Amino acid sequence: MARFRWTIKRKLLALGAATLLPVLLFLAFWTRWQVRIHTEEAEAELALASTQAAAQVEQLLEQIVGHLELLVRTPAVQRRQVREAEARFGHLIAQHPELENLIAVAADGLPFAGTVQVPTGITVSLADQPWLRQVMATARPAVSGFVVGCSPYPRSWGS
């Protein structure tokens, strides 16, 4: 049976491995620590940015809802004066293009004024829409989905 011999070459390899292994372990630990620190910093920055963005969106929504509440109380909308209401809607959309379009809907679900117009001869009732039921129940503005039958044609609502 051959005995294991520690030759110079083997001793140097063992010494190199014994010194290299702790260095590699230290580098692995340090790299993991740095990745964790940078990840935590990035998560903190992302949380701060998302909180700030949410606050800005909330402020914008509060401002828009305030405008809508004032708009609903105007005599033009209350009396269903189509041209005056549409002019006011257009002014609000000019200030807040993110609204895209506005419509005023009577309690029976029939739109009577808006920035998106119904083509002549088409009567679209929105009474069965969940967002209209929400508005009627809460008296708060709501965001609808797509309203089929309404299009941006330059025709009047009541024609």
Structural topology:
Layout: H1 8-73, H2 75-78, H3 82-95, E1 103-105, E2 111-114, H4 130-138
Antiparallel strand pairs: 1-2
What is the oligomeric state here? single chain
Total number of helices: 4
Structure classification: mainly alpha
- Major sheet size, sense and barrel closure: 2 strands, antiparallel
User: In total, how many beta strands?
Assistant: 2
Shape: rod-shaped
Distance N to C terminus: 109 Å
Q: Low-confidence spans: pLDDT under 50, at least 5 residues?
A: 151-159
* Series of H and E elements: HHHEEH
Number of domains: 2
Q: Output mean pLDDT.
A: 81
Q: What is the topology, as strand order, of the major beta sheet? A: 1-2
Helix content: 55-70%
Query: In percent terms, what proportion of residues is strand?
Result: under 5%
Give a short synopsis of this structure.
With 159 residues, this protein is mainly alpha-helical. It has four helices and two strands.
Describe the structure.
By secondary structure, the protein is mainly α. The chain has two domains: 8-65; 74-138, no CATH class. Helix content is 58%, strand content 4%. It has four helices and two strands. The protein has helices at 8-73, 75-78, 82-95, 130-138, and strands at 103-105, 111-114. It has a two-stranded antiparallel ribbon with strand order 1-2. Strand 1 and strand 2 form a beta hairpin. It starts with 7 loop residues before the first helix and ends in a 21-residue tail after the last helix. Mean pLDDT is 81; it is low at 151-159.
